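Let us practice reading a record.
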Amino acid sequence: MPTDEQLAFELLRRTDYGRVATSMRALPFLAAARHIVVDGKVLLRMHKGYGYHQACVGSVVAYGADNLNVASAKDGQWTVQFVGVCDRVEPTNAELELFGPTPHYVDGELFDPVYLRIEPQFTTVHQLHTGHDRQLQHIL
């Protein structure tokens, strides 16, 4: 039986985007990000033009993803969340390949990528099911 962290990483690999949460000027905010999992860390790609990455770097952030919009409870819905310190990184060529192509535009501006890494200190997995199937193990 996998640990919560192992299960969370496996589930995170099943979706491409999630949301990073932190605070900016003492106010909470969420920002969408593309993610990959590498060596027990979550790497993020965001649009640099918004400046959201500046609030994340050096801070404790939460990163979450789910399949709530694409699966029904009978099929096994899940959410994962990672909490940890966020740092700016330069990805390797292999990591860039895992991210895949970047968007061309975001809100009419050229997409300018910035890359962040979260080293999870705390991980949660929540599962929503109907019927007798109470574990997501059948999808792994």
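A brief commentary: The first helix runs from residue 4 to 12.
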